[in-house]
């Protein structure tokens, strides 16, 4: 709005347009971009459309910023917050600060690019075949490889298990919850969260501490 884009910047001697151009010049680089094209046309036709449009994007080999220091340091952890929802909802969310786990991920497919070497491609997870990946340096070829889930998937599988002896079955036996999910989410480059979300019953709302103990 006008206050944030004009009034406040002017009071600080900031030219918003110049700052945007500086940002574009620094960060608009092909090496930190991903292009996905979906169409009914053949791969050859899609290639003919895409390459002329995107092959001129410059690669300045910029290194994207990272924030390895978690925004929730120890003194901000082990806190409890209550939220009053507008809808008729009853849920318990438990969040744990974790490092960025994406570096441990293996997609299961490698892209062989003649100029940039091997690259990772998410297409393997989607079981896409005969796919050619267009990047700023040309066309790559797909080669199958090993598929290994990231670390967070192991935890989410254990906590989200629904069989006998699982956390969910224990909570349901007590009549405290309807469902439970757990998984990782990325906050930004360098840090993330692992969360457990419990959909509570009316009885479960009165047993928050007991549910937390069972989670641990």
UniProtKB/TrEMBL annotation:
Keyword tags: Metal-binding
Gene Ontology molecular function, alphabetical: metal ion binding; metalloendopeptidase activity
Pfam families given in the database record: Peptidase_M16_C
Protein origin, superkingdom: Eukaryota
Record InterPro entries: Metalloenz_LuxS/M16, Peptidase_M16, Peptidase_M16_C
Matches recorded under PANTHER family: INSULIN-DEGRADING ENZYME-RELATED (PTHR43690:SF18), NARDILYSIN (PTHR43690)
GO cellular component, one term: cytosol
GO biological process, one term: proteolysis involved in protein catabolic process
Entry protein name: SFRICE_033089
UniProt feature coiled coil, ranges: none
């Amino acid at each position: 709005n006008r206050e944030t884009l004009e009034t406040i910047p002017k009071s600080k001697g900031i030219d918003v347009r110049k700052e945007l151009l500086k940002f574009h010049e620094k960060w608009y680089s092909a090496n930190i971009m991903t292009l996905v094209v979906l169409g009914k046309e053949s791969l050859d036709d899609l290639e003919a459309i895409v390459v002329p449009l995107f092959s001129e994007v410059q690669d300045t080999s910029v290194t994207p910023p990272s924030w390895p220091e978690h925004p929730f340091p120890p003194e901000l952890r082990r806190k409890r917050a209550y939220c009053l929802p507008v809808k008729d909802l009853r849920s318990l969310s438990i969040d744990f600060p974790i490092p960025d786990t994406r570096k441990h991920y293996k997609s299961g497919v490698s892209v062989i690019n003649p100029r940039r070497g091997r690259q990772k491609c998410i297409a393997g997870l989607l079981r896409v075949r005969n796919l050619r990946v267009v990047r700023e340096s040309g066309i790559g070829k797909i080669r199958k490889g090993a598929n290994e889930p990231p670390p967070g998937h192991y935890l989410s599988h254990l906590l989200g298990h629904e069989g006998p002896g699982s956390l969910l079955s224990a909570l349901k036996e007590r009549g405290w919850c309807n469902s439970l999910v757990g998984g990782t989410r990325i906050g930004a480059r360098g840090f993330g969260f692992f969360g457990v979300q419990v959909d509570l019953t009316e009885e479960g709302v009165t047993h928050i501490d007991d549910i937390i103990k069972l989670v641990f």
